[in-house]
Every structure is written in structure tokens, then in C-alpha cells.
């Protein structure tokens, strides 16, 4: 049994777009914004990212969805306020609707520059914004067994979070074009199956010895054991436009980890689904989001998106009930099914206005939902970040 206090804890990382309110373009102002934010909060809470037109926030370790929501509200509030003081806005979505990647300078950090040198155009074009969810699993061997089981459910999680339909001023036809942009990298996509920790380490060292990657942290599967923290990290989600949707993804991820942990503890067999079929399922989720049938990988057939989401909810329900969070997560998931993904909503705004600038304004407004009643929190350092 997992007795560590870190078991099933949560931590959330969100990447935000920095927006010029006049042009609605991305703008490279992360150094100015971070200088103020890090002075108050520290460099572990507010962080630079690959582009100077984005910043990342990382919550402290959270023990409940209530804590996740409170931390996201406080950090979004503070980030938006600091950006506004500098004359800018923040937006939460997987891609910007029209800003050109060539106009987005890369952050001056040796690791980022090395990635560009290695992957060239694939990294130079990468202007994407994701949400990463860490779930505490202190023992690596158990984490890999959990991953073998949880990987089956990645596609519906991706579909629920989809928020990146536009790219370079065009409708891509995808609900999550961010997924397609990242999928071109060699270490992206769903994880393979691992019979043991030794097998995982051997594969990782093989990637390094062949210079496919330079270090293990560059394995960027959609679900991976973190090399920095005792966690499983869900990396597949677009940055969710509203806090409530991030809360739902975090709750589903934790419910999934606990459910799969209990299966592993009982030595229940995991579905031997091929990585290729999982990749196909996630492509379909990226293509249509919740607006078409998705792949049930265990039965190898298409089912309505709502049916697959319902199956995911049923699978994790006992774990969510044990956490006291079933009704909350179920209600938000049902609302997403009824209202549509952020990608669907962005397209609706564009169809109504014919303006991608209006889409940016919509994302900026949605990013700040639920913040009005909360006072900015000045540097709560009582908990360590993930």
C-alpha cells in the first residue's frame, strides 16, 4: 500500500499566452512579467517557458480539488494582474489563433537552445501551450504499472481539454492542433507498455545513447513518470481556457491513477493495447474533440464521444467517491459535453464575428472567469510547488 503523504496528491502546471491588447498578437514580454511575479512568489511558482511570449505557473502540492481550484484562482489572478500592470493580457488556450511562430523569440536558456539545435524546424515552429497534471505516486515501479493501465484513457481526456483549433490565421480542422504540432517530435505521443522499471530505464538510456534525447526529462510522452518529482505526469491536455475545466481534468487524472493503482495492487491484468492504436485514438480525439465518434481502444470500435466520456467517468467513479469529488467532476464533465470544448466555442465566436481578434478577446475573458471575487494572494509559501 502507498503510505506516503505524497500518494495521490496533485500539482498543476499551466502555460499562458501573453497578449498585446491592441493587436491581440502574442508578445515577447515574459522577462518583464516574470521579474515582478518571481519577486513576490519565487521562481518555482512563476516560470519562463520555451517562448518569451508565454509564462508558466506551477501550483504547490494539493491534496484536494478544492485546493487545486483555490491555487489556480490565486495564481491566475496574480498573473493577470501583473500582466495588466505591464500593459498586457493573458490567455489560456493550446494555440494562438493567428500569431506567426517566426515572430516569437525563444527564451535564452541553454536547454531550450539545445532543443532547437537538435530538432531544428520542429522546435522552431512549436508555439503551443499545455496543461500538465502531476499525480503523486512515490514508487517508480508501481507508477509504471499504473501507467500501463491509465494509458488506455488518454484520448477522452484530450478531447475534453481541446482548445487549439486555429493556427496562423486558419481553421485547422482540428480541435487540438497543438497535439499535432507536438506529435512530430520523436518522444511524443502515448507511452509504450513496460513490464518493469528495468525495461523503462533501458529504453530511456537507449534514447540517450543514440542521441535521440540528451536527458530523460526530454521524454515527453502524453503520460510519463516524472524525472523531477515522485509523480505520474499527464502532459496531453491543451491549456484549459477556464479554471473549472482544468479542475475536471485534474480530478479525472487523480481518479484514474487511484483506480489503476488499485488494479495493479490486485494484480489485475492491464489491457495490452498497442501504442499504434492509442496514437490513432488520440489523433481522432485531436481531430474532432467531442464532436464526433471516438475510439474505444479495448473494443476497437468507434463510439459517440459522450459514451466514451461516460465510460471513463464510470471507471473512475469509486475513486472519485472515495475522495469526495465525484459529483463535482461529473458535473463539470457533463457541462463540457453540453457546452462543447473550448475549440468548439472559439469556432462559434469566429462564425458569429468573422474576427480572430474576437476569438482572442473571448479566450482572454474566459481565462479570467471565476476570479472576480478573489483577492490576489501575495506569495503564499506555506507549501512547496510540485
Give a brief rundown of this model.
With 386 residues, the chain is of the alpha+beta class.
Describe it.
By secondary structure, the chain is of the alpha+beta class. It has one domain: Creatine Kinase, Chain A, domain 2 (2-Layer Sandwich). 47% of the residues lie in helices and 13% in strands. The chain has 14 helices and 11 strands. Strands 1, 2, 3, 4, 5, 8 and 9 form a 7-stranded antiparallel beta sheet that branches. It has a two-stranded antiparallel sheet with strand order 6-7. A hairpin with a 5-residue loop joins strand 8 and strand 9. The longest helix is centred in the middle third of the chain and has 23 residues. It is globular and about 55 Å long.
Topology:
Layout: E1 10-19, H1 30-41, E2 46-48, E3 54-58, H2 65-85, E4 89-91, H3 110-119, H4 121-124, E5 130-136, H5 140-150, H6 154-161, E6 166-167, E7 170-171, H7 177-183, H8 197-209, E8 223-225, E9 231-238, H9 243-265, H10 275-288, E10 293-296, E11 301-304, H11 305-323, H12 326-339, H13 342-353, H14 356-367
Antiparallel strand pairs: 1-3, 1-4, 1-5, 2-3, 5-9, 6-7, 8-9, 10-11
Task: Provide keyphrases for this structure.
386 residues, alpha+beta, Creatine Kinase, Chain A, domain 2, seven-stranded antiparallel sheet, two-stranded antiparallel sheet
